[in-house]
Amino acid sequence: MARLHGAEPGQVGDVGGNLTPRANTLSAADRRFYAQDEPHLRAVGPTQFMPGTWESVRAVADGNGDGVADPFNYYDGALATAVKACRDGGGLATEADQRRAALAYNSSRAYADGVLAKAAEYRAGLAAMGYAGAAGAGRPVVLPDGPVPIVDVYGIEVHAAIAGQVRAMVDAARADGLELAEGSGGWRSSSRQVALRREHCGSSDYAVYQMPASQCSPPTAIPGTSEHERGLAIDFRCNGQSIGQRARSNPCFVWLSRHAAEYGFYNLPSEAWHWSTTGR
User: 85-95: per-residue pLDDT in tens?
Assistant: First the structure.
């Protein structure tokens, strides 16, 4: 990934990570502090802060408690990165917060996309190793915009970030004598979502792209808004058989009602079969 961390306003990055030169106007003391005698400024240290950006966090960037906020020190650099991301991003609780934090660290959309994608890959790796909580069990899963990494879990296609949760939930249901995976459907393509809207809502452009989901039979999300398209929703079947739209007494629905939240899944009230990480 191009090293554009801590880019300052007025710097322009090309595809190779080079920046438009900025004149080195540092004082003699700061030139020594930032080890910059060159005529133009450059990013420094393990977290690649520009001097001006480092100055904005320097007062609170003494990560190892030695009395010096040193941009060349790993502890100080890590703390400065966290401070800038949380302060300028306004928190990290949602995807929007995380993207804002990444852009505050580097105002490149490609950079922010890369950071969020790597974070999702990391969560997916932990989930694949069996850490069910790694993908945020019991909490909304924060994902980057962009291509959806899909994996197969017992025949259900889901986002890689929740694979561990889904596997653990299906295993738990099986231990209780119920089969949730057989015939169940997870991720669907945007073209499939459009096709379902035509089937359930009507063939006009309004029906497909604008009509409220509640006016379709059965309710079907507008293309581009379905959690299925993100790999975060599953339409469950019970022991290979369909769960009725309002079949609240179905044994799998009863089981899911009691246990699904433990794995970060919530029901869409209008559809007994539909469970997602957001309840939508």
Answer: 778 777 677 77
> CB under 8 Å to 98, separation ≥6 — which residues?
89, 92, 115, 116, 119, 142
pLDDT digits (tens, 9 = 90+) for 110-153: 888 778 777 776 666 655 555 544 444 333 444 445 567 888 99
CATH architecture of 130-188+226-276: 2-Layer Sandwich (3.30)
Give the long-range contacts of residues 238-246, CB within 8 A, separation 24 or more.
Answer: 238/178, 238/179, 238/180, 239/178, 239/179, 239/182, 240/179, 240/182, 240/183, 241/183, 242/273, 243/272, 243/273, 244/272, 244/273, 245/218, 245/270, 245/271, 245/272, 245/273, 246/272
Question: Which residue ranges make up each domain of the chain?
Answer: 28-107, 130-188+226-276
